[in-house]
Write a structure and sequence with these properties.
Strand order of the largest sheet: 3-2-1-4-5-6
Number of strands: 6
Strand content: 15-25%
Helix content: 25-40%
Mean pLDDT: 90
Largest sheet: 6 strands, parallel
Low-confidence stretches: none
Oligomer: single chain
Length: about 190
């Protein structure tokens, strides 16, 4: 256990199925067949029909309640929560937070209210590791673990402090590896 090792973990598309579920809602309403693999930039509006404002879905409680946890996120996050100083740090609008909080308490009941932060500039948070999917959040003084999605595949991990993960097992193993690396370099 190393409670001095700080981990900040994004919420949307890291713990929940936001884009997958959002596209299901959008496709049903629009008659489109947009898939996650089609979304090659973070801004989804660039890929949807102009008459559908994708941000309107974010105000629909049905969307948030339809989200599923990402495979293995619950198990691994619970271990990380026991072993490290963990925060869920999301760049969410305040009107989203009550429903997101309820969703988190439903699927991640071990996360305390104090561990859930709304922060638009994640560089302000002092941490050892950031787990995220959005390239805009990269740049702080931490090791970034980037969960692979089509909208973040244009980053070159070899020229940055980024590790690309493909699932929660990868995320967990990289955290363990990085913690060990930091211990060895400080001794």
């Amino acid at each position: 256990m190393n409670k001095n090792f700080r981990i900040i973990c994004d919420l949307d598309n890291i713990l929940n199925s936001l884009t997958k579920t959002l596209l299901e809602f959008y496709n049903k309403d629009s008659g489109d067949n947009l898939q996650i693999e089609d979304i090659t930039k973070y801004k989804i509006d660039d890929f949807t029909k102009p008459e559908f404002k994708i941000t309107d879905y974010f105000k629909d409680k049905k969307l948030w309640m339809a989200l599923e946890p990402i495979y293995q996120s619950q198990e691994y996050l619970e271990i990380l929560n026991q072993d490290y100083d963990l925060r869920i740090v999301t760049a969410s609008h305040l009107y989203d937070m009550p429903i997101k909080y309820r969703w988190l308490k439903t699927f991640f009941p071990f996360i305390k209210r104090e561990q859930i932060w709304t922060v638009f500039d994640k560089d302000w948070v002092n941490a050892d590791v950031l787990i995220d999917d959005c390239l805009d959040n990269i740049g702080g003084d931490y090791r970034t673990i980037l969960l692979d999605y089509p909208w973040n595949r244009d980053v070159d991990e070899n020229i940055s402090n980024i590790y690309r993960a493909y699932n929660w097992e990868d995320i967990f193993m990289e955290i363990k590896r990085y913690e060990k690396e930091k211990k060895m370099s400080s001794s």
